[in-house]
Amino acid sequence: MRTISSLAALVGFTLLTPPSLPAQQSFPFQNPSLPVAQRVDDLVGRMTLEEKASQMRHQAPAIPRLGIPAYDWWSEGLHGIARSGYATVFPQAIGLAATWDPDLIQQVSTVIGDEARAKYEEAIRHDIHSIYFGLTIWSPNINIFRDPRWGRGQETYGEDPFLTSRLGVAFVRGLQGTDGKYFRTIATPKHFAVHSGPESERHRFNVMPSRFDLEDTYLPAFRATVTEGKADSIMCAYNAVDGVPACASPLLLEQKLRGAWKFQGFVTSDCGAISDFYTNIGHHYSPDAAHASAKAVLAGTDTSCGDEYDALPQAVKQGLLPESALDTAVKRLFTARIKLGMFDPPSMVAYARLSFEQVDSTAHRQFAREVAERSMVLLKNEKRTLPLHDVKTLAVVGPNAASLIALEGNYNGVPSHPVLPVDGIMREFPNTKVVYAQGSPYVNGISLPVPRTALRVKGKYFDNTKFTGQPVMTREEQGIDFDWNAASPGKGVQANAFSVRWDGTLQAPAPGDYIFDVAIADCYPCHDRETYAVSFDGKLVSRQDSGEPKETRSHTNPEFTLHFRDSRPHPFQLEYTHEAPIFGAGISLRWKPPAAQLREQAVDAAKRADAVVAFVGLNSELEGEEMPVHIKGFAGGDRTDIALPDVQTELLEALAATGKPLIVVLMNGSALAVNSAQQHAAAILEAWYPGEEGGAAIAETLSGRNNPAGRLPVTFYASTDQLPAFEDYAMRNRTYRYFTGKPLYGFGYGLSYTHFAYSNLKLSAKQVNAGDPLEVQVTLRNDGSIAGDEVAELYLAAAGAHGNAALRGLARLHLAAGESREVAFKLAPRDLSTVNERGNRAVQPGTYTVMIGGAQPAAAEHVTRSFAVQGAAHMPE
Length: 877
Prior knowledge:
Blueprint: H1 36-45, H2 49-54, E1 59-60, E2 71-72, H3 93-97, H4 102-125, E3 136-137, H5 161-176, E4 186-187, E5 206-207, H6 211-218, H7 220-227, E6 233-236, E7 240-241, E8 244-245, H8 250-260, E9 266-269, H9 289-299, H10 312-317, H11 323-339, H12 362-375, E10 377-381, E11 393-397, H13 405-408, H14 421-428, E12 433-437, E13 448-449, E14 455-462, E15 473-477, E16 481-484, E17 497-506, E18 512-520, E19 529-536, E20 539-544, E21 559-564, E22 570-579, E23 585-592, H15 595-607, E24 611-617, E25 630-631, E26 634-635, E27 638-639, H16 646-656, E28 662-667, H17 675-680, E29 683-686, H18 694-703, H19 735-738, E30 756-763, E31 767-769, E32 774-782, E33 788-797, E34 806-815, E35 820-827, E36 834-835, E37 841-843, E38 846-853, E39 862-870, E40 873-874
Helix pairs in contact: 1-11, 4-5, 5-7, 12-18, 14-18, 15-16
C-alpha cells in the first residue's frame, strides 16, 4: 500500500487536510473561458486584506466563502519528487551535471514533473493539500559551486556558469512542460543570488561581489533560466548582497529580475529568510516583522516560506506599504495557480490526467539506472584494470558499499527498490564470489549503520502500533536501515501507523564494548509519534517511549553501550512503532566500531580475493544544509578539509598494501582530494550519490556493460591549501576558469573504455562582425574497439577575456566502434562575449580561438582554429 490512496483515512487532521469546501456560486474567476488576467483581477478584488496576506504564506489556507482550497507552495524535486513517499530517485544534481547532457536532464525533469503532477492529482482526489504534494517545485539549485567545501554544492550543477545554464534551462523546461496554456508544474530556480556558503553564516552573511564576478559568474544561470527557460518562479536567498538581504534587494529583484530580464512570475523566499531581516542571528536590517515584510513585498518577494507575512495587515495599517502591493503579489500567485489548472475542470488540463501508476514505475526506475550510468566518471584506469573480467573472488569493502543514504543524497524521494552497490555487484557478477566487509567508518566519532556481516534479523510487520494480531508481512532483512518517509514499508502495511519487530542476532568483530544508537528519520513537518526498544542477550538495553512529537525531542540520538564477551552471534531484538498523519517513518541501527577492527576485516577479505572494490567517500549527513556536525574535517554541513577523511585513506592504503588490484569507487557530492588513491589504486570511478539504481549502474560500469563517459562538473583540487578563504566570494584562483595551480583532476575530465579522435575543425567564417553568430563543425571518430559515448567540449579563448579558456559548447554523442560523426555547434553572440570590470557584457574586437576535445585543452588532445571579430557589440543585461 504505497499509493496516496492509503492516506484517504486521514480525516480531521486540520493542518494538512482542511475540511472540504462547500458548494459555491459561480464567480468570473472560475470561468476557464475568460482571460487569465481578468480571472485573477476578479478573484483578488473579492479578497479582504487579511485574506490576501494569508495567501502569501507558503501554507496558504482555504478561503471557503470563495471556494478557494488550501495550497502549500513548498514542494521539492531536485532529483526526484521528494518527501512525499515513493518516487523515482535519480542521481543527485551534481551527478546529473556529470552527464553533460542537457537533453537527458530535460527528460529527467519531465519524469519528475509527471510524478509530481500525478501525486498532486491523487492527493486532491482525497482532499489532501499538504506540503510536498504541490505543483510548485523548489528546484533546480543553480548556485555556482565556487568552493568544494560548501556542503550544498551537491545540489548544484557544478562550478561553470555555461554548463549550469544549459542544464538549468533544460531542467526548467522539463518541469514546466510544453502545453502552451497550462504548466505541468512550475520550476523555482534558487537561491537568487550569490549564495554558496558557509552554511553556518548563511542567515547573516553579506556578500559584496565585484560587478565583474556578479555578471560573469553569479547571474548567468539565473538569467538563462528566466529568459530562455521561462521559469515562472524564483527563490531568493538568505544572504545579503551589497548590504541588502537578497529577498529585499532592488538590484536583484527589481533591476535584474523584473527589469532587465522581464520576469513575469512570482518570487518566494527561502524558509525563514524574511525573519533574518530582523532576528538576532540575521542581518539587523529591519526592526520587526512588519517592517521586514513590507521591505520584502515592495522589492518583489511575493510569498514567504514562514509566517512572517502574517504581519502584512499590520504593515499596511501602519503605512509601511500600500494594500495595492499585496494585490500585485497575490495576483502573481493566483496567476500561477490558474496556469497550473487548479481552478479548471481536469478534463481541460492534459497534465491532470496523468496516471498515478507511473509514479515509481518500472520504466522510470529503468530510466534512473540509465541516467546513473551516464553520470559515472572514470578518473583513472591503469593498465586497463577495468572492465573487470574473469575475477573468481571479489572483495567489496568500504562504508558506502551497503549504504542507503549514499544512494539518496539530500532533497530526495524515497526509493522503493534501492540497489546498494554490493548487491548490484552480486547481481552483475553471478559467477564471482563476493566477500563484503564494511571496512571503516566515514569519520572517527560518527556512527554508521550496522552492516549485514554483524546483524542477522527477520522483520515482522504489523498493521498497527501495538504489535497485535498476526504480522501482515515477514521478511529477512540485510540490516536495519530504512527510509519510509510518507511511504509504506510493504504490502499490507499502512504508511501512517505500523510497528515492526526485528528478531535475530548481533555480533562484534572482536570482544569488547561497542557504542550503538538508533536513528529515527528526521523530517519536517512530521507530527509523528514513535517508539523503539532494543534488547540484547534477552535484556532491555535502550528505549524511547516519550509519546512526544519529534518536533519537541532532542535531535541527538541517545547512545548505548553493549559489551561483547566474544565474537559470536548474540540474541538481539529491536521493536519500532510509527504513527503520523503522513510523514516521518524511517529507522537505522548504527554503531561506532573501532576503525582498526573494521580495517582488519577488510584486509582479510582483500587477501582472499583476486581484486578489491573499495566504496569510500561521504554522505549527506556529513555534507549538506546547515547541520549540527562539528568534527575533524566537517563543520555545520560544510567541510573544513577536502581530503578524503583520514580513516578512509588508511583503509585504502592498507588494501593497496595487499598487492591486490584496487578499484576505488567514490560516492560523494563534492570534489575530494584523493591523492593516495591516485597514487595507489589501479582504477578510480566517481559515482556521486547515484540514486536508487546506483548500485546497478556502478556494477555495470565495472563489468563493462556500461562504458563510462561522464565528465567532472567541478575541479578536483589536490588539497585545501590550493583554495582561497571559504568566505571570499571573489573568483580569483577559483574554478577552472581562474585557477592557476595544478588540479588533481580538472573540470571536464573523464575517461572511457574506448578512444575518440577529433579532426577537420571548420568555422563558418574567419572574420565575424560583432553581434553575429559563428557556426563550428568538427569530425568525431570512435577509433577504439567498443561502442561508447563521447562528450565533445568546446572552449573559447576570447579577446579581452579574464582567466583561462571557457566552456562555450558541449555535445554528448554515442558512436559505434569505428563510427565517425559530424558535430555542429552554433555560438551565439552572447557565447562570444566577455565581461569587463564594470560588469558590462560585450563582444569585443580581436582574435579568438576555438578548441574542441574530450576535456579541457590542457588535459586532452584538441583541434583548434582561430578567427577575428570586427567591431564591438554590447549584450543585454
